[in-house]
Write a structure and sequence with these properties.
By secondary structure, the protein is an alpha+beta fold. It has three helices and seven strands.
Length: 191
């Protein structure tokens, strides 16, 4: 087998593996969102920013990759996602920056604020914190927005999946035809 064919097969396997991985991740994210959860892998959550409260640093549509919070040290300036418990924030997931940490132990209160907001949020505790941002990406946000739409899901998930299935069926039919032709040739050769 020539080197060109070897590299061609390796490229084919890698591209197929990449497509399968992409489909699995997309299906996981979409399924998690459809069930009302937050997509998470290996303790990292993905949040899509839906309000301009953190602009200009974090814009609407950006996707934040945040590490699940397990009691690690927090500092002023950390961007956290927490469960709102009071006022208009009650029942919502909020992503804001820590501007102050007051008190210690059971008396500790964390004050967070959206960069574009005039007033800080009501104080929270560490128990309210879901995760701490580690990375912000715009590209994943664009991809996520497209995938989250009905036409994007069909275009980027269903269509490639159908194309892969059709390609496999065509390959299978060709192989069956080749086997049939070989069998016919063997039968003709026998007296």
């Amino acid at each position: 087998m020539s080197i060109r064919k070897v590299f061609g097969k390796i490229g084919s396997v890698l591209s197929t593996a990449f497509i399968v991985l992409e489909i699995v991740i997309i299906l996981f994210v979409v399924a998690t969102k459809m069930m009302g959860g937050t997509p998470a892998l290996f303790g990292y959550h993905m949040y899509v920013v839906v309000t301009p409260s953190m602009e200009p640093e974090i814009r609407v549509g950006d996707v934040l990759i945040s590490k699940e919070y397990n009691g690690e040290t927090l500092d002023e300036g950390d961007v956290i996602t927490y469960f709102g418990r009071q006022g208009e924030l009650a029942g919502k997931m909020i992503t804001h920056e820590i501007i102050d940490i007051q008190g210690e132990g059971k008396e500790e209160r964390i004050i967070a604020k959206g960069l574009a907001n005039a007033e800080p949020d009501p104080p929270i505790t560490r128990d309210d914190i879901a995760s701490v941002m580690v990375y912000k990406t715009v590209l994943i946000g664009l991809i996520y927005a497209v995938i989250s739409s009905a036409w994007g899901f069909w275009l980027l998930v269903v269509a490639p999946l159908v194309a892969m299935i059709v390609a496999e069926i065509v390959t299978l039919i060709r192989e069956i035809k080749k086997e049939g032709e070989k069998t016919d040739e063997n039968e003709q050769d026998e007296p």
